[in-house]
Amino acid sequence: MKTPSPGIMAAGLIGLTGIILISIGAPSSRKASAPISETSEPAPPVSVSARGFSLTSTSVDLPVDDASYPDGPHADVINANCTSCHSASMALTQPALSAAQWKATVTKMREVYKAPVAEKDVDAIVAYLTAMPHQKAAPATGKAQDPDPKVAPDVSGGTG
Amino acid sequence: MDNFDAALASETSRRRFLRRTALGTAGLAAAPALAQQLVDLKLPGGNAERPMTSAFPGKGSMILQRIHPPLLETPMDVFDKSVFTPNDQFFVRWHWADIPTSIDVESFRLKVFGHVNRPLSISLAQLLRLPRVEMAAVNQCSGNSRGLFQPRVAGAQWGNGAMGNAKWLGVRLRDVLDLAGVKAGAVQVRFGALDQPVVTGAPDFEKALDIDHARDGEVMIAFGMNGEQLPLLNGFPCRLIVPGWYSTYWVKMLNAIEVLPGPDDQYWMAKAYKIPATPGANVAPGAKDFPTVPINRMIPRSWMTSLPDGQAIAYEASIPVGGIAMGGDCGVAKVDVSSDGGRTWYRTTLGADEGKYSFRRWDGRVPLRRGPNPIMVRCWNANGVAQPMKPIWNPGGFMRGNIETTTIIAA
Fold first, then answer.
1. What CA–CA distance (Å, rounded) separates B348 from B365?
2. Of B379, B380, B371, nearest to B407 (Cα)?
3. What is the pTM of this model?
């Protein structure tokens, strides 16, 4: 293994110092030490390093979606069944699909992705989905092929 | 007309939904005023407005497709600034909502097992000590641009921003497999990750590559992205990099590498992410019972990014235009541009070559007429494949690659 030049070593030292400084944070960003030792300071993030690259333990909070499906017939059913695995926006942003396509989608959620949806609720969910405002939009026109999505089977399995 | 119709006919409900979504995330992020701004992805048939969000950890301003599990799209103007996509604006796509939110770099292990001589449990400290490689490569969702398909198809309704380009730093998958000692008769390698289905019995997200592909010396396990560790939402602490192939194979939060003595016949390889086994993955809308294959190599694409679609500008005889191109599974050979609907094409100048799997900048100049000017970009890759004029169609909305048009209005 080649010995690093003094320049590279200096750059590495500066980089390491930078990482340490960043991980420590600006003085003002640190909490003042607690007057009583009841609350322990959170441990500094743990890192592993080798050959000039470090990985630091990470902890994040992901936003929680509290949006529900808008009011309408069977909104209670879809809100009870179709918000835990994915946001309501997944359905609300879909293009106009036929009732058969929506039924196939709900069936796929039940049978392939094991969504705990009772069979008796499927028709109500499909009724809600097909009545969403954009489901009534005029079909797209223009450059592409004959727009007849209702006859198009999805054999791709999704997704992406 | 029932109450439902009355309430929804004027689209107010959708707008209310968008506002509620934005407010919900703003409250959680405790950020000052999450942008209320909407972006119009201009998907044919409408329903194309999405809120912008900065509420996700490690992420700046992104197009919000879905909060849970996250689908975040990169705004197109980001691609105009550099061929490398900043980590905090790199697109995000998760299948299952059970995503670990805390990763301890000391206890994390990457396991290698199955049809091998020496099963391994590799710590990150060990991974960092293996021989390194760095490579620029475009990571593009199989369904990037799905929302532009006509007829429209179900699925995540992406515009063009479910893609990004980064310098990936890591180790060769081949080196890791060689440490484990692949046994004779290995056929595929399957990759698993820390994210899990939220319901029992649902198919865990796993993908597989043929053994020769896995050992080609290009497929990587990356822990660095543009010089930093990966954002958690892009797969921290390490993910698979499959240069030239669609992102479905670029398994995030990779923690399991299983060498298989036969092909992977589980859901995510056998059923999902399948394309028609036809040229260009193209079938006529309504076609049935065509044979399918797992999606694989990417194809050439290009976009104008110097002006947004629909931009009005003061008339000039000609204007400079620029953008990005990708060759797909090989480099970019040339990029041509047209402002007259494809009758006249002008050669562009390519920017720095950052590697055959990277985005490549292009810049050119086109004449304008008064009124709308449809500006088209066409990339030819190093294998001689050019973007077709006509869009393809398939029911999964995969592999769009036709010439894209950006309309500029000169007044």
1. 8
2. B371
3. 0.85
Confidence of residue A5 (pLDDT cuts 50, 70, 90): low
Sign of CA dihedral A31, A33, A38, A40: positive
**Is B96:B70 a contact under the CB 8 Å cutoff?**
no
pLDDT digits (tens, 9 = 90+) for A47-93: 999 999 999 999 999 999 999 999 999 999 999 999 999 999 999 99
| Plot region of B101 (φ>0 → left; ψ -120 to 50 → alpha; else → beta) | alpha
Q: Output phi, psi for A40, to 5 deg.
A: -90, 140
Residue with tokens 């009732």: A99
Say if A103 falls within a structural domain: yes
Residues of chain B with pLDDT under 50: 1-35
Asked if the structure places residue A124 within a domain, the reply is yes
ipTM of the complex: 0.89
Q: Which residues pair with B84 in a beta bridge?
A: none
Residue-level pLDDT at A136: 77
Q: How confident is the model at residue A11 (pLDDT cuts 50, 70, 90)?
A: low
**Cα B24 from chain centre:** 27
Q: Which amino acid is at A55?
A: L
Q: How confident is the model at residue A144 (pLDDT cuts 50, 70, 90)?
A: very low
> Which domain CATH number covers A107?
1.10.760.10
**Angstrom distance (rounded) from CA B238 to CA B231:** 10
Amino acid, res. B306: S
- Kindly determine whether residue B56 and residue A156, on different chains, have CB atoms separated by under 8 Å: no
Cross-chain residue pair A61–B391, CB shorter than 8 Å? no
The answer to the question of residue A149 being in a domain is: no
Contact with chain A for residue B117, Cβ under 8 A: no
| Spatial distance between the Cα atoms of B169 and B265, rounded to a whole number of angstroms | 31
Tell me the torsion sign for CA atoms B339, B341, B345, B351.
Answer: positive
Rounded to a whole number, what is the distance in Å from the CA of A21 to chain B's nearest CA? Answer: 16
What is the rounded CA–CA span in Å between residue B26 and residue B310? 30
Residue A105's closest chain B neighbor by CA?
A: B154
> Which residues, including other chains, have CB under 8 Å from residue B371's CB and lie 6 or more apart?
B409, B410, B411
Whole domain around residue A77: which residue ranges? 73-129
Contact B203, A112 (CB under 8 A): yes
Q: How many domains does chain A have?
A: 1
Q: Quote the Cα angle for B355-B357-B363, to 5°.
A: 70
Residue A98 covered by a domain? yes
